[in-house]
Amino acid sequence: MKRKKNLLQVGAMLLVAGFMISMGSVQAAPKDNSDNVRIDFSKTAAPVEQKAVTRPEPQKEQVMTKIENVQLMWQEVPSAVRYQVVILKSEEDTQSNIALTYDQVYTNGLTVDLSGFGSEAANFYWKICPLDYNGRPVGKLHFTKPRPITDGGRINAKAPRPTTQFERMDYMPMYPVFSWIPYGGAKQHEVQVYQVTDAGDRLIRTLQAGEYDVYEDGGYSQPGKYYWRVRSLSGDGTPISDWSEKSYFQVESENPPFAALGDSITHGGGAMSVSPGYLLYDWESYSQVPVKNLGFSGNTTEAMLERFERDVLPVSPRVLVVMGGVNDYRLGTFGSRTVANLQAIKEKCDAYGIIVVFLTVTPINPPYMVSRAHIDHPPYDWQVHQQYINAWVMKQKYHVDVATGLTDSMGNLRTTYTTDGLHPDYYGKKYIGEQVGRYLQMNFSWLTNKLTKKPIPTYND
């Protein structure tokens, strides 16, 4: 698969992610065959007079009467491709009480412009409804209970708000994806990445980004403390917001015992709008054993082989989990060529004293790929090559079959496990992570017993 960073991107599992509309229209990503299948679709306390009492009463915090905007944010919902956000004039949840409606919100947050409502905006309420690809409420979920506009939001925001969840991951991904809630109606953003050193903060990268996220092409293998920030730009590149708060991340100094090399399915992201910067669609999140993410969206097995020395050796894991091939067979690469690349990766692992665990390559769902993600139809014999790859994987000393459980009676990726037909979503990633974690615990207990896993995320399934 290729990666949607100017070139190869249409699957983001190959995988990679998303939409974002902070204040208005939806933009569709151009057709391509990339691995990232995505469609662009503080309170202020008012002074309170103290009474003449022996012990002063605590001052009550009051919301400012003039609200220019509010930056709302909520927990992402599995399988939600977008959200509908409704602003109410009061707690009364009726059609006639609606002040604003946003139907095309492709991230778990929104900056709402309330400047035209004056002081009455302080009494507004808000609610959301998660929607699937077809615009239907996800599962049994409909609208949330209305909440005060000041509950869960930032009043009078002046910059985008970072949404990445690196601090909740066991290890920092080799290739991070930075994401945010846009400020105003900005379609362009600028991201800066700094390394914190004894001599001061050092700017190491400046990235030009679209509406809601940017995929980092340069890997982070040097241990240390970093942070990133983002600001919104106008169409001509002029800054229209302040810089966001600093969002810190740490590249660990000790080599992790387990790492995973792969394409977008390993990199993360899913449901066509959620990037790998979130836990939701990263299978590593659900593994009972902490695993360092070395995935790169859009990778073929040839690309994985080419970056072995650059990305795997600096991490130097004791065990390397390898899954690749979906971008090979869907683009016409013969299974024998894919196996040759995987064999070469195995030989490199043997040469450097790394134990390799292969995962079977997952299936795809061509009808969904073509109709929903606008990905070219794969070769008619793709299943032959997928099966050839998996037959080889199953003969290896260490292997995990994650493909069979995701496959329907026709040999395709189950529709209940995918939105775009290419990448497994929540239940698929959860299944992969749990299978891998159990296998690592069972076969490498001498390593897993010494590790501490960060909390596995839970959602309202």
Q: In terms of topology, how is this protein built?
A:
Elements: E1 69-73, E2 82-88, E3 98-105, E4 109-113, E5 125-131, E6 147-148, E7 153-155, E8 161-162, E9 177-181, E10 188-197, E11 200-209, E12 213-215, E13 224-233, E14 247-251, E15 258-262, H1 264-267, E16 292-293, H2 301-306, H3 308-315, E17 319-323, H4 326-329, H5 335-351, E18 355-359, H6 366-371, H7 382-393, E19 399-400, H8 426-443, H9 445-448
Parallel strand pairs: 15-16, 15-17, 17-18, 18-19
Antiparallel strand pairs: 1-4, 1-7, 2-3, 2-5, 5-6, 8-9, 9-12, 10-11, 10-13, 13-14
Helix pairs in contact: 5-7
Walk me through this protein's architecture.
- The chain is an alpha+beta fold and 461 residues long.
- Helix content is 17%, strand content 22%.
- It contains nine helices and 19 strands.
- It has a five-stranded parallel sheet.
- Helix 5 runs parallel beside helix 7.
- It is globular.
- The two termini are 30 Å apart.
- The model is unreliable at 1-34 and 36-63 (pLDDT under 50).
Point out poorly predicted stretches.
Answer: 1-34, 36-63
Reading side by side through the largest sheet, how are the strands ordered?
Answer: 16-15-17-18-19
Shape: globular
In N-to-C order, the SSE pattern is EEEEEEEEEEEEEEEHEHHEHHEHHEHH
Distance between the termini: 30 Å
Q: How many H/I helical runs?
A: 9
User: Roughly how many Å is the radius of gyration?
Assistant: 23 Å
Strands, total number:
19
> Describe the biggest sheet?
5 strands, parallel
User: Which percent range describes the beta-strand content?
Assistant: 15-25%
Q: What fraction, in percent, of the residue positions are helical?
A: 10-25%
